[in-house]
Write a structure and sequence with these properties.
By secondary structure, the protein is an all-beta fold. Helix content is about 0%, strand content about 40%. The chain contains no helices and four strands. The N and C termini lie far apart (about 25 Å). It holds the Pfam family DUF4982. InterPro entries: DUF4982. This is DUF4982 domain-containing protein.
Length: about 70
């Protein structure tokens, strides 16, 4: 998973699979190894311990998931 946040949490069907660090110190990526379960896969980004941006959801059969976030620059 790629993100510029501090951490990303992955949930499957509402059950947390944990948070992992991402961001610049981790080359903006992390990996979660999971076993397929039908249902909803949800990724939530955190900055300084606070949810950042909108959660990303995937439902149905997911073979590969790429999440991209558009940043608004002031």
């Amino acid at each position: 998973m790629y993100s510029d946040a501090d951490e990303v949490e992955l949930l499957i069907n509402g059950r947390s699979l944990g948070r992992k660090p991402v961001g610049e110190q981790h080359r903006f990526r992390t990996e979660f190894e999971i076993t397929y379960e039908p249902g909803e896969l949800l990724a939530i980004a955190y900055r300084d311990g606070v949810k950042s941006g909108s959660p990303v959801r995937a439902t149905g059969i997911v073979h590969s998931l790429v999440i991209r976030r558009r940043c608004r620059r002031s």
